[in-house]
Amino acid sequence: MVIRIWSCNRLTESPDTPSKQPISDSYLQEIEQAVIRAASEAGAFVKSRFGGVLEISQKGDRPGKDMVTDADKASQKLIAAIMEESFSDHMLLGEEDPPDKEPAAADWLWIVDPIDGTTNFVNSSPVHAVSVAALFRGEPMAAAIWIPWPNEKGSLLMHARKGNGTWIGDNKVQVHESSDSGEPIDGVLSARPGWIRRVFDVNKPLEGHFGEIRIGGSACHELFLVANGTFQYAITGYAMAWDFAAATLLIKEAGGKVMVAGSSRLFNDFNGWPDGYANDAATYGRIRKWRGLLLSGAPKTVDFVAINLQPKRSGVLTKLGSLFGT
């Protein structure tokens, strides 16, 4: 049995033995570097295909919806190859996997969105992203998101590992500072779905104080902007595990807070998918099929928004849940 020491002194249960195997920060750093490499190389590939000829198909039967391109598939293959080269015992769960693929979940699971915002990408919008996260038994431990950016390089790459902060190059990033009360600040960017009032009643303290709302069409891109402080908060979704796995860690390590609306549509702290994690196909399938609504940003702001959004009566929620598959 390999024993690894994790500097944070947190022990994680091994499914194969009754003992506990700590994870060293040095091992976590190796994983972070592989995740950075995967997101960076996939991002460079995606950039090379931007605005060019694409082979476009769709996953469902709705014309123009759920599009996938040959670039999505090639980006995921590139990431998978780097993961397998670096850590042969890790497993990949990607958006472009066959929908019926449900192998037994490994302890280490890379959750990948090879191009988030495919519709934007197809239409030559720069609002898209590549997202790569390495999770240990359902909890994000290392992550990176690549986005196009109008700088000399043409892109930004943000990365983090648990306990080490969130970084863009040599610059440590932080979420936007909140107001004293947590009330969203007028004139500062925020993001929320347009249908929010159909699902939640808005309490008076939040009414008229949502901030300057912007919606871009890529959950990963949106949450990147929460982590780097461009957005003061975001309500994002309903979306899949690959839309949130990397961003959850990036935002938390940038000093932010992440909550998820559960079945009752009340917001609770979100730590990924560790509950009930087992090395079986059911765990893999549960994470693959998961959908959620995330609230993220500065802790005070997130708490203020969460307490001032109350779920509407169950009939409306049930209808919305069926619409989004929750």
Task: Write a concise keyword list for the protein shown above.
single chain; seven-stranded mixed beta sheet; Fructose-1,6-Bisphosphatase, Chain A, domain 1; disordered N terminus; 9 helices; 2 domains; 17 strands; 326 residues; four-stranded antiparallel beta sheet; D-Maltodextrin-Binding Protein, domain 2; alpha+beta
Overview of the molecule:
31% of the residues lie in helices and 25% in strands. It has two domains: 25-172, Fructose-1,6-Bisphosphatase, Chain A, domain 1, CATH 3.30.540.10; 189-324, 3-Layer(aba) Sandwich (D-Maltodextrin-Binding Protein, domain 2). Strands 3-4-5-6-7-8-9 form a seven-stranded mixed sheet, with helices on both faces. With 326 residues, it is of the alpha+beta class. α1 (25-49) packs antiparallel against α2 and α5 packs parallel to α6 (241-253). The radius of gyration is 19 Å and the shape is globular. The chain has helices spanning 25-49, 70-86, 118-122, 196-199, 219-227, 241-253, 281-289, 299-307, 314-324; strands at 56-58, 67-69, 91-94, 108-116, 129-136, 139-148, 155-161, 166-168, 171-172, 189-190, 200-202, 212-213, 233-240, 257-261, 267-269, 291-297, 309-311. β7 (155-161) and β8 (166-168) form a beta hairpin. The termini are far apart.
